Amino acid sequence: MAPTPTSTRSWILANYPHGVPTFSTADDNSTFKLVEQALPDLKPNQVLVKVLFLSNDPAQRGWIDPSIPAERLYIKPVELKASMAARGLAEVIASTSDRLQIGTIVQGPVGWNEYGVLGEADCTPRQPLPNGLSLTHYMGAFGIPGLTAYYGLVVVGGAKGGQKVVVSGAAGAVGNMVVQIAKNIVGCSEVIGIAGSDEKCRWVESLGADKCLNYKSPTFEDDLIKATEGFVHVYFDNVGGSILDLMLARMAKNGVVIACGSISGYNSGKPTLLKNYFQLISMRLSIRGFIASDYLSKAQEIGKLFVQALRDGKLKISDEMEQVVATNFEDVPRTWLKLFEGANTGKLITRIVE
Amino acid sequence: MAPTPTSTRSWILANYPHGVPTFSTADDNSTFKLVEQALPDLKPNQVLVKVLFLSNDPAQRGWIDPSIPAERLYIKPVELKASMAARGLAEVIASTSDRLQIGTIVQGPVGWNEYGVLGEADCTPRQPLPNGLSLTHYMGAFGIPGLTAYYGLVVVGGAKGGQKVVVSGAAGAVGNMVVQIAKNIVGCSEVIGIAGSDEKCRWVESLGADKCLNYKSPTFEDDLIKATEGFVHVYFDNVGGSILDLMLARMAKNGVVIACGSISGYNSGKPTLLKNYFQLISMRLSIRGFIASDYLSKAQEIGKLFVQALRDGKLKISDEMEQVVATNFEDVPRTWLKLFEGANTGKLITRIVE
């Protein structure tokens, strides 16, 4: 058995980013810096974990944006010199907790660390999933992204059977679940996805979308107008920016925009620019922001609903829906930055390799 | 008795405006042009009216904006060569209607005409108001603006007793009613107005606002932050633009923005620019557009509620709350344009004089 580590490598927040975050193993001016730091001794009811997988989420960009006051964020922002915050899956390698034995796989706020000390209360032990699915789906369909899709679409947006729905970021971790929930659980009459490549679009259509449009196509704006003839009841917005603006002109009277993310603006620092804002008024639209953590009390219930839907063939969840990138610890920020390149299909997950 | 007129002077929409609309009695290139046109003979159940008062409403700017497709407007847009659309009060001077006798004062879609022919169904005969108030209040507190204030604040926004409310355009026809309804009918704990001059602000405070801030003050942004310590549950937005953006950063968790107007952008053609859009998500805000005409079925009920509130001293409605501008017919567009100069306090009304 390997000796218990007493220190860890960590990617810390060295400087607040301007635009696209940077990283370096040496340069003190980059956003993230690789350091070696001592691990504290375990207090009662704590565990020492080895980080296996990291969840990569667009929202993490907001946690390191100094222009957003801490009181206006839904989580504590990352402090300078602290490890970059991230959720992930880890293996317990030492424990003072009766509940969490060595060898248990837990999900929790592991951060960008190789090893870390977590409180028992912050760790959720994870059991195997049906169909032999990888545990990493606890960071996707069976985790916050799936909960986000359900809470946003059904509870916040009030989507109903027979409605026409558009989803941007449709090939992402949240978006692909929105497509499937809308079409196969809620019974929406038409579900149109928007994604960033023809390949992604075909994949989204394979999940049940009636159509998926590539926003990088030169004919995208015309394609969107054509696909939304008769207008749209619910727009699940994962991207913000110019697609949100276009959609304001394509909503039916009393339509609802579910504001889940605005990734298009996260690194540009550019404001959201709405030429069609007047139509929010004239068409009696509403834009509704939400945060899935408000719905955590229902996570177990929704998890069961998804398992049943999976068994009934109403959800397609497969390991192909994740993009698990084997990553040396030195490259953890590099993998995370793929989020903002529109490069990933499904949930982007970092698997830490040695 | 004067002979019944067979023609009328009218301000027609000669060209769609770019930026601030222009007007001329002669120039064919201006937005509005003064013309003389024949009046049609009365068909059954019609009236010939002499226009006495015109209602001036920011929303009229949207009715002549060619960039907004007709299907995305809540009223039929004004066609080129047609009289500019406007509601107003008029006196019946000839009638083929059993219901509307000569001499009756009616409210209806009179347009920018000296005389006009209206169908009986388009005319609402108007009875005297309590306290000897001028009939023009049927275009203000007892008309669409009052209904807009109530519907927006109470029904769409769901404002409740004990909440903190901010209202922009607080010295306008809708805004001053929002202030009074919030403070004296709904029982909000704190009501903060925003208006365009110190004089307007003092007037808004005299109506019951706890505070009113002048957005033209160099310290406005700091003043607003200070006045909204603890954050705001409901923002009634009559102006859009940069004040909307500022308010997104001042809303409490789950706060509601009631989107009633965006006058700041009507003539500039500038898009709405939101630097704080992310806070819509992080603070779970919603922005809700609405149009008061959806609530017309309740107009009588709300009118009664206002009359009772007036008697109970919970509403201050006086002729001072209107700005009635005696206007030669040649100057009808000039008076309307005052709306966009931030010059009017209370409802801006045109009284046509000869």
Automatic annotation (TrEMBL), chains A, B:
<dbReference type="Pfam" id="PF16884">
    <property type="entry name" value="ADH_N_2"/>
</dbReference>
<dbReference type="InterPro" id="IPR041694">
    <property type="entry name" value="ADH_N_2"/>
</dbReference>
<keyword id="KW-0560">Oxidoreductase</keyword>
<dbReference type="InterPro" id="IPR011032">
    <property type="entry name" value="GroES-like_sf"/>
</dbReference>
<dbReference type="InterPro" id="IPR020843">
    <property type="entry name" value="ER"/>
</dbReference>
<dbReference type="InterPro" id="IPR045010">
    <property type="entry name" value="MDR_fam"/>
</dbReference>
<dbReference type="InterPro" id="IPR036291">
    <property type="entry name" value="NAD(P)-bd_dom_sf"/>
</dbReference>
<feature type="domain" description="Enoyl reductase (ER)">
    <location>
        <begin position="27"/>
        <end position="307"/>
    </location>
</feature>
<dbReference type="Pfam" id="PF00107">
    <property type="entry name" value="ADH_zinc_N"/>
</dbReference>
<protein>
    <submittedName>
        <fullName>Quinone oxidoreductase</fullName>
    </submittedName>
</protein>
<dbReference type="InterPro" id="IPR013149">
    <property type="entry name" value="ADH-like_C"/>
</dbReference>
